[in-house]
Every structure is written in structure tokens, then in C-alpha cells.
Amino acid sequence: MNPYLVGIVVPFVFSYILSKKSSKQRGLPVDVGGEPGYAIRNYRFTSPVETQWEGVTTLAELFDLACKNFATKRMLGTRKLISSEIEVTADGRSFEKFHFGEYEWLSYNQAYDAVCNFASGIVHLGAIFADTRAELAPLKTVNWCLFMWGCFRRNITVVTIYASLGEEALCHSLNETEVSTVVCGHKELIKLIGISGQLDTVKRVIYMNDEGIAKDVSLAEKNTQWTLASFEDVGRIGRENPVAAEMPVSADIAVIMYTSGSTGLPKGVMMTHGNILSTLSAVMTIVPGLGRKDVYLAYLPLAHVLELAAESLMVAVGISIGYGSPLTLTDTSNKIKKGTKGDASVLRPTLMVAVPAILDRVRDGVRKKVDAKGGLSRKLFDIAYGRRLAAINGSWFGAWGLEKMLWDFLVFRKVRAVLGGHIRFLLSGGAPLSGVTQRFINICLGAPIGQGYGLTETCAGGTFSEYDDTTVGRVGAPLPCSFLKLIDWPEGGYLTVDTPMPRGEIVIGGPNVTAGYFKNEEKTKEVYKVDERGMRWFYTGDIGRFHPDGCLEIIDRKKDIVKLQHGEYVSLGKVEAALSVSPYVDNIMLHADPFHSYCVALVVPAYQALESWAKSQGIIYSDLSELCQKEAAVKEVQGSLVKAAKQTRLEKFEIPAKIKLMEEAWTPESGLVTAALKLKREVLRKRFADDLSKLYA
């Protein structure tokens, strides 16, 4: 056969297939009750699914079934700490670096025995408050997971609270739920001791044995009236004094999950066993081939609903879960000792969940590395990327077949090795993912990224991109557990009769919609509604539009819309997502004031990129603080933002007229972003009020 003919026919065939896939109907209109709107259901299910496992109605039953089905399989894995050291950089900054070994595993059988022991030993457990990933002691995460399943086995409600919450939010969450027992690690115990005088109901603390804990336990014993016991003590007591399981029913509250408090004090969302199970059942039908051959890398906090749902599903289908941390994820992560392996390289996962902020950093890291090499390496990467992009977009001349294999071997194989080289599916959730990042990661990893949309109030259930959906910027069709409805928001100009697509506030209905907010009836009545047919709906406050194939696109948020002086509306989140594509941006907060006609922004620069630019320009500075104040640096970053804005077709009034470069990163520990790295907008506004005022001066 003529080789030139193959080079033309193969791309044509694939582009034809892609064009057929793009027209696939993924969501269908459905008749629903409640407030009038435009409603869509999943194309395969006429009514929302509640369980995929016969006879299983609770998470406790699901865990028992999994341990029976996958008894000898590896379940939970952690890495042993080999050594740690302090590394000092040329400018005097010090960083702690770790060297971890291979993963060590608990089987499903071993996990079941441990859960039964803990269930007997924690009869009155009231809360779990601890980082669910570890920098020093990865076993802490396994303990968290075992405690959670142990609580379910005794029908004890687990209260999850982000370890990064400030003192006020911690006191509020612990006192509101009248917690009697707290489970914590080293860092969290220090925080608890500091606020012990403000805690009304805490009587017992179960601590996890990690480095430095003995000193803090002694301090707690001297300064509090708490009874303290180690994780090992609880297991031993339970093993010596076994108690029969007290299994829950579907309507029992499994978790009170406190939100990260991005808009004020956190609210406790009450999730029943049935709520969570319906989301797990729905996702089971979407990701193809989920099963025991898969390996899942867990590094997000279990206090985040996306991670809680993901890990619960992994357990249900017999997948091995290896724990890591954002700071130890790759070989070049901040906490990994040079020359040693990060979590992904050792575990070689096939599945991962990520929030957009993490994927943005992966994209920036790859791009910076390519640009730093320059020359032939950069040219090859750009050619390979362009060819793959053309293929995905349906071009006849894109890279398919043997050419794709060639580019994978020459270029993308090295990129894929960053996350272990075996990723077959990535799920992004928690916030909108930019189309640029989605396509970049998709091409470089050679695996689809499914965008999902859901909230704590819907147990992470809402929509999910299917495996064969090659589009970007959308969050997929409704999951089989949910109906999605758009309702008019006239004040913002979003109507279901809009063309070419219906638009409006997103409302989610189904068995995954939670019971409401703990001890907050007023707020519950405001955003939860039950229609005349008995369907429970949650009003999200997000604005979306339905594409003709039934997929949802998030286009705005009611609370993020600000009207400028001359009447233009600015969507803060949308603009921030667009500007984050700039290689100089690590984080950004847009600020709009109704008394002004322009926007301003606080920018946390990608320090390595900014310093590389300064070096190339011969700019002299003593530290980052001085560099961030230099007019040339501000001008360079501002120019990059304008370029990013033009690429994403922002309006002129949406582009920040003035910016301030921030010398310190925004972290959950600083209280400026949530554990999922979302902006705490009100906190940022208050903290940097003077800087914002100067930008408007």
C-alpha cells in the first residue's frame, strides 16, 4: 500500500469518528416538578439511580461487601520515611526535604480486621480532625480512612473539618456539632491545645503517633481536662473488647462535612449513607473498566467531598489506594529530596483526581521545563503538540497511528513519567478547569481528563464528562443520580429562552442531594427545596448553559458577578480562570468595585518564572519582595495578563488595569485559600484592603 495514502486515510477515518462522537446525545430533556426551568437527565437513565450493588443501601454494607470480594488484594498503601534533611538555598531560605521508600500495603482482609477493632474501640467517637494526607507520616492517612469506616460500622456520624481552618472556624465547627471525641495528628493537637478553653464539649482526644507527638500529648495532659489515647490504644481496646456492629440504614447521617469556609464561617453539610451511595453508583456507570487492576493515587484531603467520594468508590470496586501529598507528588515536588522519587513515580497510578490548581501547576511545570531546554527539544515538543492538537480537533493532517506512537515515544513519554507513566483517566473537579490546561494535560498525558461538577451539598454528584468526550471547557452531562435544571435569573440577564443555548442558575435534584445544613434551618430553607413530586433540589448559585448534546458549561457564579460604574458586569471567577493561563501567574484574585470603571488584581507570581525573566534582563534585586516591587517586573506580568486576556477574548473592562505582585504564596495554612486551593475572597479582601485601595488611588 502507498504509505502516503495511509497518512491521509487514517487521519480522515479518525476525524470522521471524532465528528460522529461530538454529535452524540449525552443528555435528554426531562419533565420535572418544582420551579419552572429547562431540565436535562442522563441519556441512559430515565430516573436517578440510588445503588448499583444489590442489597447494599449504606456505606458500611458496601465496605463489608468489598472486603469479602477482594479479601487478599492490596487496599491501602503508604510510603515509609527513610530520612529527612533541611536544605538551604543560595538566598538563605530553608526547606525540609524527605526521602521516602516503597509503598507498604494493607490488604482488604487486614483493613477489615482493623476497622472491626476500631469500631469496637471508638463507640463514642464524635469527630475526625486531621490532615488526610501526610508529609512526614503517611500512615496517618490510612488511620483516618480506617477510623471513618469504623465509625460507619457503629452508625456513628463522622464530622470532617479541614485542618487548615482558622481558630474561629474550628471552634464554631466543633462546638456546633457538640463533638466529644476528636481524632488528630501532631499539628492538629497543637491547634486544639491553643483553643482548648473555647471548646465546650470535647472530652477525649485520639491522637496518631507521628514525630513530635509525645511532647504535645504531655502538654495537652498538663493544660486540659481531656482524656488522651493513641490510635494504637483504640485498636487494642477494641480487639480485646469486641462489640457487635450496629449497622446504619440509608437515611442515617454518615458524614457532617464542613465546607472550607470560602465565603465566611463553614457550614456543616449533612450527608446520609444513601446520598453518598447514589453518587458512587452513578460514577460506576461512567468511567469504563473500573476494577481491581487499577491503582489510585490519593493526595487530596478526605475532608473534601470529591476525595471522600473517590476513595469510597475505589474501595467499593477493589482498587488499590496509595496515599501521597501535593508536596511529595512528583520527583521535583517541594518536599522531595533531590535524586529520590515522588509518590507518582513509585506508585505508577492509573487513576487520579485533581483540582484545577494542581493541574495548572503541572502544565506550568512542563512548559517551563521545555522552555528552559530550548533548541531542538523545544521545537520537537511544539511540533508534536501541534500535530496532536490538530488530530484531536479533527484535522486530516493531525498525528494519528504510527505518527502518534512516534511522538509519544520521542516527546510525551517523558512528560507522562512525571505522574508515573500509566495514567489512563484523570478527573478534575472542585472548580472550573480552563480549556487550555485541559487540552494541554490531555495531550501530554495521552489520557482523557473528565471534568466533573458537583458540590458538597450534592455529595460531589452533578455532571461528569464521559470517557469519549474530547471537548474542553464543559463539565459533561448529568450523572445518572441527578437531574439538572436551569432556572431564569433575570437580574443577571440569564434566561432559559436564550439562544443559541438555554442559560440560568443551575439547580440539582436527585437522591444525592443532601439533608441540609446542620443546625442552620434558615440557610437550608434558602437553598434546598422539595417539589410536589417529592424530588429534593439544591440551588447552587452557579450559572450554566446547556449545549445541544445535553452537556453543561459553567459560565458564571451569582456571587462573583460585580457591576462596574458604567453598567458592565464582570464575572470574577471567569476572568481569574482566563488570566491564570499566564506563565507568570501562580494565583490571582480579581477585584471589581461598583464605584470604578475598571478592575484591579492581586497576583501571586510564579516565582521561578519571574526570577528567570529578571535574570535574563539583568535586573538586580536582593530578595523576592524587592523584585515584586520593581516597576519592570510589574509591567512584564501585566503584559502577560493582557496577552492571556486577548487569547481568551476577554472584554477590555475585564482586564485588570492595575496589579500588585504579592511576595508570599497563598496557602491553606495562611488562611487565604481553602484546602482545595479556592480563594477565600472575603479574607483576601480584608487582609489586603490597603493594597487594593492603593491600586484604585
Automatic annotation (TrEMBL):
InterPro entries: AMP-binding_CS, AMP-dep_synth/lig_dom, ANL_N_sf
Pfam families according to UniProt: AMP-binding
EC number of this enzyme: 6.2.1.12
GO MF: 4-coumarate-CoA ligase activity; ATP binding; long-chain fatty acid-CoA ligase activity; trans-cinnamate-CoA ligase activity
Alphabetic keyword roster: ATP-binding, Ligase, Nucleotide-binding
Enzyme class (EC, first level): ligase
Entry superkingdom: Eukaryota
Domain AMP-dependent synthetase/ligase: 98-518
UniProt catalytic activity: a long-chain fatty acid + ATP + CoA = a long-chain fatty acyl-CoA + AMP + diphosphate; (E)-4-coumarate + ATP + CoA = (E)-4-coumaroyl-CoA + AMP + diphosphate
Biological processes per GO annotation: phenylpropanoid metabolic process
Cellular component, GO annotation: endoplasmic reticulum; membrane
Family under the similarity heading: Belongs to the ATP-dependent AMP-binding enzyme family.
PANTHER family in alphabetical order: ACYL-COA SYNTHETASE LONG-CHAIN, ISOFORM J, LONG-CHAIN-FATTY-ACID--COA LIGASE
Protein name: 4-coumarate--CoA ligase
Organism lineage: Eukaryota, Viridiplantae, Streptophyta, Embryophyta, Tracheophyta
